Amino acid sequence: LATGPRQDNGIFYEIRTYEIKPAKMNEFLEMVNKYLHFRTAHSELVGFWYTELGAMNKVYHIWKYDNFAHRTAVRRALANDKDWQAKLTSAILPLVEKQYNEVAYLVPWCQLGKPPKEGGVYEWVTFQMKPGGPALWSEAFRAAINAHINTGYTRLIGVFHTEYGLLNTVHVLWWNESPDHRAAGRHSAHEDARVVAAVRDSVRFLESQQNVLLIPLQCSPLK
Which top-level group of life is the source organism from (predicted)? Predict the structure, then answer.
């Protein structure tokens, strides 16, 4: 199946999702905030969040790599990093129920963004699209994303589509000033004819959708 055009370099993002034992979430977050600098010494962290709404006891973190050789070198270095292994990996593994990872690219029409200020909340929206990739759904999906951007209530951070993991998956990361600001903006968007028309056109490519509200950790570059 065609995947369509994508960014013209090898940069990709590894999206890691961990399910944490319910009684151990605070301990997990404390350990990560304290010792994650051992991990970020090896490669770039985009952001690290825990879920507040839409899912419980989950964390999301995104890592940037120049190419697959870069990731291989980083993983090899981590395996030999005694501080990383002893102070964080061995400490948090007993707190984790499950781990998932995906490799994803930014869609060609999106650059990774930043929020205008610290202190807001993030929304992670996962779309399961019909098979065919961006060559099939990109134009309509982009129009729907732009329609929401044009309302002005939310800030787009990134749109990622999977290369490894569950295929035909698109993750969209938004930033809002607060949950209430997001709720008010969504209400207005639902009454905006431009948004309604764009969404109606894009949902013909959609299989399912899930969203969660994320809070950034203290150690997260995106706050």
Answer: Eukaryota
